[in-house]
Amino acid sequence: MARVIAIINEKGGSGKTTTAVSLGAFLAKFGKKVLLCDLDPQANATVSLGLNPKNIPLNIYHSFSKKVPLKDIIKNTSLFNFDIAPASADLAGSNIELLETRDRESVLKELLLPIEKNYDFILLDPPPSLGILTLNALVAGNEVIVPIQCEFFALRSLEDLFEIFDLLETNLKKEFSQIFGLLTMYDKRNVLSREILKKVRETFPGKVFETVIPRSIRLAEAPKYGKTIFQYAPDSKGAKAYERLAEEVINIQISNL
Question: Rounded to two decimals, what is the model's pTM?
Answer without folding.
Answer: 0.93
